[in-house]
Amino acid sequence: MKRTYLLLTLTLILGLLAACAPQSASPSESPRVLTVMTHDSFAASEGLIAQFEAEHNVTVSFIRSGDTGSALNQAILSRENPLADVFYGVDNTFLTRALQAGIFESYSSPLLEVIPAEFIVDPQHYALPVDYGDVCINYDKAYFEEHDLAVPASLEELTQPEYAGLLVTENPATSSPGLAFLLATIANFGEEGYLDYWRDLADNGLVVVGDWETAYYTNFSGSSGQGPQPMVVSYGSSPAAEVYFAETPPDEAPTASIIGPNTCFRQIEFVGILNGTPNRDLAEAFVDFMLSVPFQEDIPLQMFVFPVNTEAALPKVFIDSVQVPDQPATLAIDVIDASRGDWIEAWMQTVLE
């Protein structure tokens, strides 16, 4: 009788302990779905996403929604009935629009502790920084060597006669790097002087195309070797891409960037939890995942931008081939938001008409 009583007591205690123990998702439970809206340039290693899915018993569904502006417009228009739980890809040229529209819920990720303050543009943490990159003028090294021509070191030098017809840029009304370069000129010359500068560029044979693909792969001599312009507005990481994607990687990148003061514009990309998500816990986990070292170290060779987490290591091709400007051009996000449309309209009237 005593033995039976002891066995029943032990069974009851073990049952209570099991009930109180933390419960993990059963493999038999159907995975929840987390939907992430991004711009079309988003990329991440499939294995990394699969690991997140396995750890959280979730299926991650991505909605690629065009360029940054188009994706943000969709997020704003659907804010009463969000299409996703998380939005990634809004940058500092459009961030104020997102914040004013109230599409995000605030989240103070613990990983913000390892992100430099210069990237934390939103102190309320509705939008958290994920990566950054510089839009710079890239040049074809071989062209300048063959023509015994000095590489211009400043924006001002681009208007000199020896560089006539040598630069191609993108229309800021239709292209993100084109807009970034316009903002660099405004940061450098001010609102009073930037249009005069663009007039000088236009008079010096500036070539304008509608998108980055045309500028880089058709007009730029450094990518195809056949384009007429040896300078192009592109990304500071483009030289690393030239090496990484080459069939036979060269000893050094065939292109480089002009990185004098205010010649490059720094873009920062953010992630936010969309307001009204029914999956707040998973959304927080995904934001933390994007800021964690494994994802941050995956970023450079997936999207060719820099991680913001200071603990993330860079791949060798970035260290060897990418030049980082000491003084990139920047503008306050509220200033950009207030004047973006007027600047673009004035640019079009000055350069295209």
Q: What does this protein structure show overall?
A:
- With 353 residues, the chain is an alpha/beta fold.
- It folds into two domains: 29-132 and 267-320, Periplasmic binding protein-like II (D-Maltodextrin-Binding Protein, domain 2, 3-Layer(aba) Sandwich); 134-266 and 324-351, 3-Layer(aba) Sandwich (D-Maltodextrin-Binding Protein, domain 2), CATH 3.40.190.10.
- Helix content is 42%, strand content 18%.
- α6 (176-203) packs across α13.
- The protein is globular.
- Residues 1-25 have low confidence and may be disordered.
CATH homology group of the largest domain: Periplasmic binding protein-like II
The major sheet is characterized as: 11 strands, mixed
Q: Detail the poorly predicted runs.
A: 1-25
- The level of helicity is 40-55%
The sequence of SSEs as H and E is HEHEHEHEEHEHEHHEHEEHHEHH
What share of residues are in beta strands?
15-25%
Number of strands: 11
Average of pLDDT: 90
SS content category: alpha/beta
**Span between N and C termini?**
101 Å
CATH class of the largest domain: Alpha Beta
The CATH architecture of the largest domain: 3-Layer(aba) Sandwich
Alpha plus pi helix count: 13
Tally of domains: 2
Give a short synopsis of this structure.
The chain has 13 helices and eleven strands.
Protein topology:
Blueprint: H1 2-20, E1 32-38, H2 46-56, E2 58-64, H3 68-77, E3 86-91, H4 95-101, E4 104-105, E5 128-140, H5 141-146, E6 167-170, H6 176-203, E7 207-209, H7 212-219, H8 221-224, E8 231-235, H9 238-244, E9 255-258, E10 265-274, H10 280-291, H11 293-303, E11 306-307, H12 316-321, H13 333-351
Parallel strand pairs: 1-2, 1-3, 6-7, 6-8
Antiparallel strand pairs: 3-10, 4-10, 5-8, 5-9, 5-10, 5-11
